[in-house]
Write a structure and sequence with these properties.
Largest sheet: 5 strands, parallel
Number of helices: 14
Number of domains: 2
Number of strands: 5
CATH superfamily of the largest domain: Aldolase class I
CATH topology of the largest domain: TIM Barrel
Oligomer: single chain
Distance between the termini: 40 Å
Strand order of the largest sheet: 1-2-3-4-5
CATH class of the largest domain: Alpha Beta
Strand content: 5-15%
Radius of gyration: 20 Å
């Protein structure tokens, strides 16, 4: 807890004012009632909410998010959301502003579901659950809505549905990472060095039955830190190709998510 709080303080000091508290990994599905299952999640999220409110810069309200269903686990339900919010709100001190969004599980996994050959499986997203929980978050608890995790590896046609069902946020990361690593503009020699490094340094993280391709796919996000300087030094001609490919992807997602022509909302009047 102390380590997480110090990292959070560091982030706020650096100007990050949108913080998600993901305590869904400590939800205990073995316990009998939904309230008992969410108990630790409620306690941790309430504690972190109060800590964040205590370090907010004057005049700033940080957007704080919670999570009720571990991404990659079973889909979230309305009952899960009510059980969590009931326990969470009881633990918050009077006058402390609560979370503004809630992340839910609707069938995805962070980074996608990786097949033995390293490719990504097609998944069926439960948009009905996402719509129902987003509406409940707004109407019953005054939040902005529900958040969709693990979306970047979904097929393109899925992204147009998110604004239709009232999704508040869509979290994207792995898809952009894949564009970089799988691009013909990413130097082969550097990629080989990265994979060799990951195999040596993080071999203990390889799960039983996991193929080399699955292990490297799940682990290569660590190379952005381990090889930061080498990536900075990629030749400009390669970087230009990577930038253009990423920009094309960003443009597609902005159109699909219906966030075009919104500069006026983001700029100071």
């Amino acid at each position: 807890m102390n380590a997480i709080k110090e990292l959070t303080r560091e982030a706020v000091d650096a100007g990050f004012f949108n913080i998600d508290i993901d305590a869904s990994t400590i939800v205990d599905l073995e316990r009998q009632t939904l309230e008992e299952q969410q108990e630790l999640n409620c306690q941790f999220t309430a504690d972190m909410t109060e800590f964040i409110r205590g370090i907010e810069p004057e005049g700033t309200t940080i957007s704080v998010g919670g999570e009720i269903g571990e991404v990659g686990g079973r889909n979230s339900t309305a009952e899960d959301l009510r059980a969590f919010m009931s326990g969470y709100l009881k633990l918050l001190e009077p006058g402390v502003k609560g979370i503004s969004k809630i992340s839910v599980q609707t069938g995805t996994a962070h980074g996608g579901v990786v097949l033995p050959d390293g490719s990504i499986a097609n998944v069926k997203l439960d948009f009905n659950t996402l719509e129902a929980l987003s509406r409940m978050a707004r109407e019953e608890y005054g939040m902005g809505g529900a958040v969709q995790h693990g979306a970047s590896t979904l097929p393109d046609e899925a992204f147009g549905r998110f604004p239709q069902v009232g999704t508040l946020e869509v979290h994207l990361a792995t898809g952009f990472q894949n564009i970089i690593y799988d691009s013909p503009y990413f130097p082969d020699e550097l990629l080989n060095d990265i994979y060799s490094h990951l195999s040596d340094k993080y071999s203990s993280e390889r799960k039983q039955g996991e193929t080399v391709e699955q292990f490297l796919y799940k682990t290569r996000k660590k190379a952005f830190g381990d090889f930061k300087e080498e990536m900075w030094d990629i030749p400009e001609t390669n970087l230009k190709g990577l930038r253009e490919t990423l920009e094309e992807r960003f443009s597609l997602l902005f159109r699909k998510l219906n966030v075009v022509n919104t500069a006026g909302l983001a700029l100071d009047p």
